[in-house]
Amino acid sequence: MPSASFTASRSYVRRSRRKGANRIPTPSRTTSAEPCEPSCPVPNQNIPALSTAAPGSGGTSAAAPGTSGGAVPTHHSPYDLRRKSPSHHECGAGPSTSAATAGSPTSPAAPTTSAQGYTSAMLPARKRPRRTCSVSYETCTNTAAHYLQYELPDEVLLTIFNYLLEQDLCRVSQVCKRFQSIANDTEIWKRLYQSVYEYDLPLFNPAPRTFEFVSPEESDLPNPWKESFRQLYRGIHVRPGYQDMQFRGRNLCYFNTVQSALDYADERSGSNNITGTTSNTCSGDTSDSSSQGALIFLHAGTYRGEFLVIDSDVAIMGAAPGNVAESVILERESESTVMFVEGAKQAYAGHLTLKFSPDVTSTVPHHKHYCLEVGENCSPTIDHCIIRSTSVVGAAVCVSGVGANPLIRHCDISDCENVGLYVTDYAQGTYEDNEISRNALAGIWVKNYANPIMRRNHIHHGRDVGIFTFDNGLGYFEANDIHNNRIAGFEVKAGANPTVVHCEIHHGQTGGIYVHENGLGQFIDNKIHSNNFAGVWITSNSNPTIRRNEIYNGHQGGVYIFGEGRGLIEHNNIYGNALAGIQIRTNSDPIVRHNKIHHGQHGGIYVHEKGQGLIEENEVYANTLAGVWITTGSTPVLRRNRIHSGKQVGVYFYDNGHGKLEDNDIFNHLYSGVQIRTGSNPVIRGNKIWGGQNGGVLVYNGGLGLLEQNEIFDNAMAGVWIKTDSNPTLKRNKIFDGRDGGICIFNGGKGILEENDIFRNAQAGVLISTQSHPILRRNRIFDGMAAGVEITNNATATLEFNQIFNNRFGGLCLASGVQPIVRGNKIFNNQDAVEKAVANGQCLYKISSYTSFPMHDFYRCQTCNTTDRNAICVNCIKTCHAGHDVEFIRHDRFFCDCGAGTLTNQCQLQGEPTQDTDTLYDSAAPMESHTLMVN
């Protein structure tokens, strides 16, 4: 077992040999700290001397398999141990065990060698014949020893052993295997263990600075209580009232104050350094303690006023039943409650409550305002502690200086009136699994090149920010849960550059992450959600990296970059936020790429107030408002994004929004793919814009812009709308397969259309109406399902060197009174379906139905009292309204209301059986008639 005083001393064995007699130790209680001299002599036997080597170190004798120095056998209840008495070669634990010769044939008390005698010796105790002691003293003592070892019932031995303390138990376990088994009873050791250490569970110390409570049911050890007792036996105890008490069979040190225990530990350490051993009988040491510092147990109670400065590798451990830390309290009103300074390389403090409670009315000055302080060049472990400070300055925990490198884990740093944990001045350290909550200021401060590692901490409900890194603070923050702090969950300022990975930052009453005043930082693979304001704020020349995060369900925006903020925002999943997924404003210039920005309750990306930024290769989709908003002097560059499936516009430029939109896919929006208005003047180049339910590109209310080399197709309305004094430039675009017209210009729209291919649209390739005056130059307008170019309603245009061909209704169709400037155009091979229908006497509704407005002569019938909104084609006037009072309206775009059945008279031309004229016209050979060549 652990020490000479814990088992049997070498000096004791030497005394026994000098007297020439061997003795069986008999338990007795005295007030002496030394083991008693045995009082029952047994002739011709030797008492075994246990090695002073540490248990488990291989130094104990092989003759004592029940000691902790060797393998402990699987334990059975002592009530199962009744058996036949063993033969002589089974009695002892080894050649050096005193019981080995108790029943041997050479002993005077040995059984006879006859069959009857041997059989009698093997009978159970209760069936053996009673013996009478001979007059020989030697025979008498041997008979007593034999009875104790083999015949005394297990229940009696168990009761006796329950009165023994640990060292006597260990001595008794050396007698024989039977004693060893009973002396290792778990209930005996549990009682002893709890009387000394007070813990509810066995505590193990498998390595320096490592203490672990293990449930007996989960332990692989046959007797975890005894093994825990052995590992902790070197400890010094601070237990008021026990200092003057001594126990026979126990070698433990007790002190009334923590400082006296520390002083004693220092003295003992110094003695060990000089002599290599300790001569103090109150040491409680084991031989393996040389690899660890002193171990001090603080028992339940409140220790006030002690100024504890730890400068050695001491371990201070709370000792109490139940929640240990709540029962063991160290409290101080000035300076720091506990300080670790240089020399405490392997120090430990665990399962304690540390309190700093300064008297606010006191006039005594002090410069330390910390509960726990870790200084330069020390690396203690602080484990399972409760740390509280009522000081309105300083911090509950301060780690400061070069070489400060503590391990702080499983601690509760809460309800402090200032900062919870403060790491500064190049300090480092590892901080794991701590609870940091409800502090008046930041839960954690990191500044001045401090570089801690913080993992799996729970930082919440602070009355300020959760974690604040500033003044060039660093740090690695992994898998922390940061939530419900009054300000941001994580704040970075003034050159700080933390790395934050796999954290959950949520339900902040202000925001999630706030980076400002030249802050940096790497924020990677975090979940940032449900914050009252933006999930991430970046401002004032800050330049963090926000990568692979989920930023969602914010009560405002996802990422908010303002005040000349920068940053790399990439590979994030940003969704479900109440405002824009990403907002860029006031000269901010971030890089935003490879993100998914979707299902926002507002827009996807909002750039305003001279915002900038490179926005590339993102997927922006399914947002309630515009996928991208660009306004008020902003000039971002959007490249290779997929912007789709929005509930309004894809990309919306307004109020002088500028910038570049290049090589994007913009599709399937409920409104237009792109809208430009009110002075906005973007460059829109190389994009694919399709599937808009309100058209491809809408330019209105004074919008400008250069649309170049885009593909605009398969939109439900016009591929490009230009109206209300807008004046864009369209060059080398392909505008095709629209379910309405190709380009529609009306309400005073202007624009320069050059070198575009406009083809296969369901309505006119280019429709110009209502005081509009665009310039069309060198365009190709062909294969339309209606006319090539239609100009109507007092509009005009300049048409130069265009090619207009193979359009169904005709090439260039001009309404009454329209006089465009026409120069160098080629209009050829158009199908002229309107003229053919008129020539064949058909109703024009036959070729247009209500979806097209063919341009031709239209009339009104006064007799049928048609309104100004009704029009009748020339063939219906001749046939269906023959003899009626009719008047010519104008040459313009209408469909025939007579053929449509909206008039009182039934149309006679629509009802007559005719051949499939659509097929006939579609298959008719192209004609070059009406080709217009104007110089």
Question: Which features does this protein show?
Answer:
935 residues, alpha/beta, Pectate Lyase C-like, 25-stranded parallel β-sheet, 23-stranded parallel β-sheet, 77 strands, elongated, disordered C terminus
* Number of distinct beta strands: 77
Task: Please tell me what the overall shape is.
Answer: elongated
- The proportion of strand residues reads 25-35%
Helix content: 10-25%
The overall pLDDT average reads 83
CATH homologous superfamily designation of the domain at 671-831: Single-stranded right-handed beta-helix, Pectin lyase-like
Description of the structure:
The chain has about 950 residues and is of the alpha/beta class. Among the domains are: about 155-255, no CATH class; about 670-830, Pectate Lyase C-like, CATH 2.160.20; about 845-925, no CATH class. Helix content is about 15%, strand content about 30%. It is built from 16 helices and 77 strands. The strands form 6 sheets. It has a 25-stranded parallel beta sheet. It is elongated and about 155 Å long. It starts with 9 loop residues before the first helix and ends in a 12-residue tail after the last helix. The model is unreliable at about 1-135, about 275-290 and about 910-935 (pLDDT under 50).
